[in-house]
Design a protein that fits this description.
Blueprint (H helix, E strand, L loop, with lengths): L13 H59 L19 H10 L5 E6 L4 E6 L5 H7 L7 E7 L7 E7 L5 E7 L10 H7 L5 E2 L3 E2 L6 E9 L2 E8 H9 L8 E5 L5 E4 L8 H12 L9 E7 L2 E11 L5 E9 H23 L3 H26 L14 H21 L4 H10 L6 E15 L1 H5 L4 H21 L3 E6 L2 E6 L8 H21 L10 E17 L4 E6 L1 H16 L3 E4 H6 L5 E8 L8 E7 L3
Parallel strand pairs: 18-20
Antiparallel strand pairs: 1-2, 1-9, 2-3, 3-4, 4-5, 6-8, 7-8, 8-9, 10-11, 10-14, 12-13, 13-14, 15-17, 15-18, 16-17, 18-19, 20-22, 21-22
Length: 619
């Protein structure tokens, strides 16, 4: 030390050091908690948006699919080729039922190549002024319009006004006819192709309202079904997301086809800006995106995905919600926790860490749980652990959704539903040709047995029997199609590929007979005829896909392969056998199973006798 200079030691109290370390540690934990919670909340929000979009797509499919189906199968109507008369058309009741049962249908009509047409329309789609101009009386529910042109020198039009039961209230006629179906977009579009087609948005001739028409050509003309844009708007307005955000259907060129209306609870300028931003984000086919956008300084979360509005024509479903509406409660809970954590950190750093973990961990569990739901892994329940009320409610809601999907999975093949969720497929009527093996099984003397028992005992026995049969079939990679009374239909190689499915089916049939025998033997009683399981198997090509209506679709198989398997099951009764297989199936598994030829037998629905083999258990 140099002389003349005094050194003052720099000292810091233990309190300041401890406080500094505690504050630094607290700041780190609080920052981590904040960003972790925000990331988890966004993850949960994105997952919830994806689930919401999926629900809207499914509901839209239920709105559109019936219209597509009506047009697609219209050529199969027995009366579609009939020419309309002044008194009506043979398809009148059918068309009235479509309009009455499906409120999304504005009009359904048949246009003929000679310029005649027949229409059943909903009066609700026409203004009161238009109905009065047509001469519609009070109580008009349906409009029947007939235009007869053909070889007439002067065409005539009949307007018949019907009540909701289809009874006539009044009829008018005129020779002043400007309408010719052959000049309309729906007729021209369908007349050029053999499949179902859909028009672009155009103005309907009867109402002047914009809408879409799904149509298909048949021998003598074209069948068309109208859907108004107003109906699409009303549908979108009915969705919960419309209360706080924007729902829209946007064409591939960015044109707005339908959208929910402005809501008083949402900032109007923000609503319009969000809608305009969605229109600029038109997707390529097959691409789904979840993103966030800045709208007037406020963060919105958006979801864009493909959607079909009939005739396999893809548009874009757009959903936008303020981020606060999606994860607002979680964000607020996170901010409150940070404030409390800062106060607690002054006294207890470990407590700060515990509080942060109590918030971030449940959100991460929720995000992982939503991922499992997306993958249709529904066995693991959501834990109800969070002490934060909002997170606890979200845990309960997601667990309830998991339970609901788990219940739904009991009614449909899980493999099918899992594939649709993974590929984000919308279930629609239709099918593909596939080589499959079909099994039909039935209980012989079931009716006689059930007549001797109380209904409760019958249900108890059948529940145990089906539990055995179902588990055995599932263990052998079968897709269970349906239960019909005491009968079961199942098949292999659809929707998922099954290697050597013919052999799999044989193994399953033998296993079912062995597994169910102890159960059916226990039912024997001196007054009750013996009950035994009969099985028919056949391998061949069939149409596999979705069949049904807007209310419910069934994934099933159709065709001669299914019919023959069903017939073989019934032949067991005549031949006193348990398992009968077709010649085709026997050839595929030759040498691998015990087979006994039972010769050729007459099968209902087949002109020539069919070679049949009995499948026997290994000795």
């Amino acid at each position: 030390m140099r002389p003349g200079r005094t050194r003052f030691p720099i000292t810091v109290s233990l309190f300041v050091v401890t406080l500094g370390v505690a504050l630094a540690l607290a700041a780190t934990i609080i920052s981590y908690t904040h960003y972790s919670n925000r990331a988890s909340a966004l993850t949960a929000g994105r997952a919830l948006m994806e689930r919401s979009a999926e629900v809207v797509r499914l509901q839209t499919a239920s709105l559109i699919a019936p219209i597509d189906s009506i047009a697609d199968y219209s050529g199969d109507w027995l009366d579609v080729d009939a020419v309309p008369k002044a008194s009506g058309h043979p398809a009148r009741k059918r068309m009235i039922s479509f309009v009455n049962v499906m409120p999304q249908i504005a009009n359904i009509y048949i246009g003929y190549h000679d310029g005649s047409s027949y229409l059943i329309g909903a009066a609700r789609t026409r203004s009161k002024k238009d109905l009065e101009a047509l001469g519609a009386p009070e109580g008009t529910h349906l409009l029947e319009q007939i235009i007869l042109r053909g070889d007439r020198s002067k065409p005539i039009r009949y307007d018949r006004f019907l009540d909701e039961n289809g009874d006539t209230l009044a009829t008018t006629s005129t020779y002043e006819i400007d309408y010719d179906p052959r000049e309309r977009p729906w007729f021209k579009a369908a007349d050029e192709v053999a499949h179902v087609t859909r028009t672009d948005v155009y103005l309907f001739a009867g109402t002047g309202e914009p809408g879409l028409t799904v149509s298909k050509r048949y021998a003598k003309g074209v069948v068309g079904v109208d859907l108004t844009l107003e109906d699409l708007d009303n549908f979108l307005n009915s969705e919960p997301q419309a209360k706080e955000g924007v729902l829209a259907i946007i064409g591939r060129d960015g044109a707005l086809l339908a959208n929910s209306s402005e809501n008083e609870t949402v900032d109007r300028s923000g609503w319009r800006a969000a809608l305009e931003a969605l229109q600029t984000r038109v997707l390529d086919p097959g691409q789904d995106t979840v993103d966030t956008i800045d709208v007037n300084g406020r963060m919105w979360i958006t979801h864009l995905s493909k959607i079909e509005l009939g005739a396999n024509t893809q548009e874009n479903l757009a959903i936008a919600l303020p981020l606060s509406a999606v994860v607002g409660e979680l964000t607020q809970a996170s901010r409150r926790t940070i404030g409390v954590s800062m106060l607690i950190a002054l006294g207890s750093v470990p407590l700060i860490w515990l509080v942060s973990r109590s918030l971030s961990r449940p959100l991460q569990v929720l995000a992982d749980g939503t991922r499992r739901i997306r993958e249709f892994d529904l066995d693991q329940p959501f834990p109800h652990e969070s002490v934060v009320d909002e997170i606890y409610k979200l845990e309960g809601a997601l667990d309830q959704m998991r339970t609901s999907l788990q219940t739904f999975g009991r009614y449909v093949p899980k493999a099918l539903v899992r594939r649709m969720i993974e590929r984000q497929e919308v279930p629609e009527p239709g099918g593909v040709k596939r080589d499959i093996t079909v099994l039909f099984m039935d209980l012989e003397n079931f009716t006689a047995m059930s007549s001797h028992l109380e209904p409760e005992e019958v249900m108890r026995r059948m529940s145990r029997y089906f539990e055995i049969v179902t588990q055995t079939l599932l263990d052998h990679d079968a897709t269970i199609d349906k239960y019909i009374g005491d009968a079961v239909m199942a098949f292999w190689n659809a929707p998922n590929r099954v290697e050597d499915h013919a052999a799999k089916a044989c193994e399953a049939a033998l296993a079912v007979i062995a597994a169910s025998k102890a159960e059916t033997d226990s039912w024997q009683d001196g007054d009750i005829p013996p009950v035994r399981t009969r099985i028919g198997l056949h391998t061949g090509e069939a149409i596999v896909g979705n069949v049904g209506s807007s209310d419910r679709l069934n994934y099933t198989a159709l065709g001669d392969t299914v019919n023959l398997a069903s017939r073989l099951e019934g032949v067991n009764r005549e031949l006193k056998t348990s398992i009968l297989v077709s010649e085709n199936l026997a050839a595929r598994v030759e040498g691998r199973f015990q087979m006994r030829s039972v010769g050729e037998t007459a099968v209902k629905g087949y002109e020539a006798p069919v070679k049949v083999f009995e499948l026997l258990p290994e000795e």
